[in-house]
Specification:
- The structure is a single chain.
- The protein is mainly β.
- It contains one helix and five strands; from the N terminus they run E-E-E-H-E-E.
- The longest helix is centred in the middle third of the chain and has 4 residues.
- The radius of gyration is 13 Å and the shape is globular.
- It starts with 14 loop residues before the first strand and ends in a 13-residue tail after the last strand.
């Protein structure tokens, strides 16, 4: 198995195409608005938050919870001086496809 992507060293604009562990799923809403979901993804090198999955993208994150492994394609961006992952593709990997323990520190 190849080495996992080193999340802390990724610069703005860096492309990510890798399996990552879902560390947290946070469902929030704007004041008086629609809900959105933020994911925290990680591997043994660190963690990175995603941009919001707005109402029209809720199907992509439906059913995800901490401990799931997903294959993510995206690009590192910034919002309010914080790095986040702009996800273009997210696919929940079947159990056993990647050992979640291999993604933990």
């Amino acid at each position: 198995m190849s080495s996992p992507v080193h999340l802390p060293s990724l610069g703005i604009g860096a492309r990510v195409d890798a399996p990552l562990l879902v560390l947290d799923v946070a469902v929030k809403s704007q004041i008086g608005g629609d809900p959105y979901t933020l994911l925290t993804l990680g591997n043994r090198s660190g963690r990175i938050g995603t941009e919001p999955f707005w109402q029209e993208r809720q199907g992509e994150v439906a059913g995800l919870r901490s401990g799931h492994v997903v294959h993510v394609i995206g690009e590192v961006a910034t919002f309010r001086d914080r790095r986040q992952l702009r996800v273009s593709s997210l696919r929940h990997l079947p159990e056993g496809a990647v050992d979640p323990a291999s993604l933990l520190p």
